[in-house]
Amino acid sequence: MKPETLEIEIDDAHAGERLDKALCDLLCETSRNAIQRMIKDSLVTVNKTARKANFRLCEGDLVEIVFPPAQEVEILPENIPLDILYEDSDLLVVNKPKGMVVHPAPGHTNGTLVNAVMYHCRDSLSGINGELRPGIVHRIDMNTTGSLIVCKNDRAHTDIARQIKDHSIRRIYEGIVIGNVKEDEGTVAGAIGRNPKDRKKMAMHVPGGKEAITHYRVLERFPDYAYMEFRLETGRTHQIRVHMAGIGHPLLGDDVYGPARCKFHLQGQTLHAKTIGFIHPTTGKYMEIDAPLPEYFEELLNTLRHLSGRL
Question: What is the reported pTM?
């Protein structure tokens, strides 16, 4: 696999910044350690000259980054069926099922979306996110279902990552929350960061938290629940789950941010990534992909309608 090369012209917003800091902002899906390693290995040049991490950039500087090929590791392709909503030579959009982890991690070394797409795409996956997450430009929680973009090359990956960074990707989720939400529409704005008392959880209004904004709309009301639509303006870890729990309406089935027990015996939160819209990295045209609600979600809605006397 040949290394991918990316050229970036520095604008006034990043003029005066350190090289490593500017690239961390511009290459939002590449870790700071990876960027500093590439700079150290002279894979990053400014106006054709290798520079150190603390080099101060000027407006108009041309930065060239050579991404090393992803290292081979023992992540085995697995013939796991994929629900593919869209595919071309640059990317595919899959409808991730409940219970599937996106990429390998301790305790989940196989059966992941990465294992499945490696089998499906063979050698055509971006390597920017490293050998453990080929093709992965963003992710959704294990028990959240719905649309997820997978990139087949580094150019597409960089472009989609930049759209995510700019908050220009349209992401619409649907979920069921506990309780009677007072307003039909509203916005939750609260920075999200690691919970200092439990590092496995996220929390609102913590020191060093990142800005997070969720817009919501009630689609259907039940006596004790609400079927809702969520539009993400930002994309923080567990954002919808944390925000809705923060206003007293945790997602039904969420045993991390809501009640430990659920009378419907669900497998995690009722949350579905319904719609994703983005500018195609090659054609430049806006496209929008819609993932149908999973069967369990439809059945649960019908159960709630029946219990409320609507069916």
Answer: 0.76
